[in-house]
């Protein structure tokens, strides 16, 4: 009897999870469906769900008008580069805060997080002027640096949380065996924190991939990533919904595929240390 | 004849050679709309003639505005040509941020630019941006529904007639709204419409001392009339409808009338997109008998930021893209209905273009808008649906949010106007007016 109740609850929970998942996924599904419609069908009321004339015309137009591969490559470099640089800077920082805390560690962590509360537009002009001086406008290098700095508080916080879950005694043992600081971080700490580092990397790749303020404001013709690609199909005067949907689908496809293949690692990392 | 051909060939070759000798790559920031995208597709013609290559940065209108403003105010130098509107041009020209276009070639024929456009894109008589296309606003209406309602649209209707016709055409059972208008917040969306409409009701943004006038009876009448008419005959949720939402409704046959940008005429009469393409009529934007109509004036224009290293090549592009030759090039490839409208007088003298159904009404609408005298009472600013001062965009965005809240029933018209007066007064005082 008890088993039947558990089974019913399981079924209910599964159905609920699917329903919530579908609600969350629906905007993306609708974008994908709209990308296969004509502009007329895209604005039809009542909306057409599946029964419309499917067409690839929007993809063809987008491909003709824009150099998708250039935008994609820029996105890969910028998201990948900023995340890699961020991890290199954040691992030692998180290590020191987790294992050699001072009385100001908590304050420093809070201060780092507080920088995320600053509206980006408030520092647009200073950063733009600095970029002019340094010749970094419309360069991938510039964006790698800016996105790394923006996401650094999150990376440090995430790594700090994961590192805190690792018993300090293990590191002490390594030190007693003669491990240097570099060896301790590289060969003891990092392998143990791989799930946490992996989920931090994935989350930051997603954040950098989707970042649409700095990537639009600091680029022009050369370094624009996929966010600039999408922005070029949005218009308040003229119907571009189907083309915009095609561009959006092309822009999110790589990150969706990456997320799909790494979901196990992502979930493992995010729940790392949740149950002791 | 041979001699003339030979001379033509030599001059064409020398033009190409001159261009090729100093071939440049110019970067152009532009908006995403049909005419601009068409221009991008025809850029090969420019490259073939001059040797210069072009890179495009296409952005949504509001993103573009922020992007180019950041670049020009910091002298970032990311763009050699910027697509800007009538609002920015005189302000940027006054600040010395744009290259004056006072030395364009004789072939270009500056005098052919429609005076209203040239006036709106100049500062103290100097042209700072060349109009790529221009627009006003007008009434687009369903001829079949108008006939069914037993009414006939005058060429120059009044607001009272529009309200009466809207009520008569409304058929809620068949989901037909008598009239669709912009109510969406934003200075370029609902803010532009209500400002142009207020001109015909005798209202104005500022008096001659730069004091806001939302406490006037003219503004109360404007908003009360707009909300009353839209509540009676407008679509549900009109407070959030902008150009695209109304275009979509009209194309699907759900609007009896739509008062909006003249460029929409080519969209609603295109049978590929519009279900009502063969039953659309046009009329001037309405008035109230006070001497000013409710149509606006706008142009998307090409300007060259001061300090660009490629000024000569940029000027060549501006001349090419806004020339008579470009219009003919588009006509030869896409037909006369698709040429960029509203910029040149000669276009409206062309018999081929005169055959386009909305050509005459577009021209009449443009000619009836005067940015230098937009209102019934005198004002200290230039601009029909805006006041060409840097503070306007911010103030008008906030004010239009209050108006949209009133349309949505979240506050009364009186409350919206009181808040608008306070917002505008505070901002103008802070700006030192």
TrEMBL record, chain A:
Alphabetical list of InterPro entries matching this protein: BP-dep_ABC_trans_perm, MetI-like, MetI-like_sf
ABC transmembrane type-1 domain span: 72-262
Membrane topology category: Multi-pass membrane protein
UniProt keyword Ribosomal protein present: no
Localization annotation: Cell membrane
Keywords: Cell membrane, Membrane, Transmembrane, Transmembrane helix, Transport
Top-level taxon of the source organism: Bacteria
Regions that span the bilayer: 12-33, 71-96, 108-131, 143-163, 184-209, 240-261
Pfam families registered for this protein in UniProt: BPD_transp_1
Family membership noted in the UniProt record: Belongs to the binding-protein-dependent transport system permease family.
Record PANTHER family: INNER MEMBRANE ABC TRANSPORTER PERMEASE PROTEIN YCJP (PTHR32243:SF18), MALTOSE TRANSPORT SYSTEM PERMEASE-RELATED (PTHR32243)
Protein name: Carbohydrate ABC transporter permease
Source species: Albidovulum sediminicola
Lineage of the species this protein comes from: Bacteria, Pseudomonadati, Pseudomonadota, Alphaproteobacteria, Rhodobacterales
TrEMBL record, chain B:
Top-level taxon of origin: Bacteria
InterPro entries tied to this protein: Bact_solute-bd_prot1 (IPR050490), SBP (IPR006059)
Keyword Zinc (UniProt): no
Entry keyword set: Signal
Primary localisation category: periplasm
Cross-referenced Pfam families: SBP_bac_1 (PF01547)
Signal peptide: 1-23
Annotated compartments: Periplasm
Similarity annotation: Belongs to the bacterial solute-binding protein 1 family.
Name of the protein in question: Sugar ABC transporter substrate-binding protein
Organism annotation: Albidovulum sediminicola
């Amino acid at each position: 009897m008890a088993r039947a109740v558990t089974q019913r609850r399981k079924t209910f929970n599964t159905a609920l999870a699917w329903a919530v998942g579908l609600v969350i996924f629906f905007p993306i599904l609708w974008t994908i469906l709209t990308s296969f419609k004509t502009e007329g069908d895209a604005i039809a009321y009542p909306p057409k769900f599946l029964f419309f004339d499917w067409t690839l015309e929007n993809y063809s137009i987008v491909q003709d008008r824009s150099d998708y591969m250039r935008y994609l490559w820029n996105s890969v470099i910028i998201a990948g580069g900023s995340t890699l640089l961020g991890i290199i800077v954040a691992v030692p920082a998180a290590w020191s805060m987790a294992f050699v805390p001072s009385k100001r560690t908590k304050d420093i962590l809070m201060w780092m997080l507080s920088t995320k509360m600053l509206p980006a537009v408030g520092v647009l002009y200073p950063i733009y002027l600095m970029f002019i001086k340094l010749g970094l406008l419309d360069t991938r290098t510039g964006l790698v640096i800016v996105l790394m700095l923006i996401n650094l508080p999150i990376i440090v916080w995430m790594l700090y949380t994961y590192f805190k879950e690792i018993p300090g005694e293990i590191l002490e043992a390594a030190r007693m065996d003669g491990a240097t600081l570099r060896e301790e971080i590289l060969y003891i700490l990092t392998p143990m924190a791989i799930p946490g580092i992996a989920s931090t990397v994935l989350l930051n790749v997603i954040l950098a991939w989707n970042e649409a303020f700095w990537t639009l404001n600091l680029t022009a013709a050369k370094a624009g990533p996929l966010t600039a690609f999408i922005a070029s199909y949005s218009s308040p005067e003229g119907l571009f919904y189907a083309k915009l949907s095609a561009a959006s689908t092309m822009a999110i496809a790589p990150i969706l595929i990456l997320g799909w293949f790494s979901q196990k690692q992502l979930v493992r990392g995010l729940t790392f240390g949740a149950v002791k | 004849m041979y001699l003339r051909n030979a001379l033509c060939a030599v001059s064409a070759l020398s033009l190409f050679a001159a261009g090729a000798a100093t071939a440049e790559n110019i970067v152009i920031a532009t908006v995403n709309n049909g005419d601009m995208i068409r221009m991008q597709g025809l850029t090969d013609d420019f490259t073939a003639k001059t040797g210069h290559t072009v890179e495009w940065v296409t952005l949504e209108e509001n993103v573009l505005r922020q992007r180019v403003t950041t670049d020009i105010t910091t002298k970032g130098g990311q763009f050699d040509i910027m697509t800007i509107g009538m609002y920015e041009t005189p302000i940027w020209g006054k600040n010395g941020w744009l290259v004056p276009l006072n030395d364009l070639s004789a072939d270009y024929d500056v005098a052919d630019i429609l005076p209203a456009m040239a006036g709106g894109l100049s500062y103290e008589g100097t042209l700072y941006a060349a109009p790529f296309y221009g627009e006003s606003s007008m009434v687009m209406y369903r001829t079949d529904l108008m006939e069914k309602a037993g009414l006939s649209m005058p060429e120059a209707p009044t607001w009272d007639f529009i309200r009466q016709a809207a009520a008569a055409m409304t058929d809620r059972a068949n989901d037909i709204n008598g009239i669709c208008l912009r109510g969406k917040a934003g200075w370029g969306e609902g803010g532009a419409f209500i400002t142009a409409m207020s001109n015909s009701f005798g209202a104005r943004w500022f008096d001659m001392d730069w004091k806001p006038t939302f406490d006037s009876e003219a503004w109360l009448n404007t908003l009360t009339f707009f909300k009353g008419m839209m509540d009676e005959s407008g679509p549900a949720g009109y407070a959030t409808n902008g150009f695209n939402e109304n275009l979509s409704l009209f194309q699907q046959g759900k609007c009896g009338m739509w008062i909006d940008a003249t460029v929409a005429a080519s969209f609603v009469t295109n049978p590929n997109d519009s279900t009502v393409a063969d039953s659309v009529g046009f009329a001037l934007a309405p008035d109230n008998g006070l001497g000013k109509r409710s149509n606006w004036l706008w142009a998307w224009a090409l300007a060259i930021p001061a300090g660009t290293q490629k000024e000569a090549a940029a000027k060549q592009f501006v001349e090419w893209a806004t020339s008579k030759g470009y219009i003919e090039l588009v006509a030869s490839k896409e037909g006369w209905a698709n040429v960029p409208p509203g910029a040149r007088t000669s276009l409206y003298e062309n018999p081929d273009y005169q055959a386009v159904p909305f050509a005459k009404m577009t021209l009449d609408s443009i000619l009836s808008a005067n940015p230098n005298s937009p209102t019934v009472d005198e004002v200290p600013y230039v601009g029909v649906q805006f006041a060409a001062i840097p503070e306007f965009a911010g103030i008008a965005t906030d004010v239009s949010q209050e108006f949209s809240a009133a349309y949505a029933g979240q506050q009364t018209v009186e409350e919206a106007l009181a808040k608008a007066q306070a917002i505008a007064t505070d901002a103008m005082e802070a700006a030192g007016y």
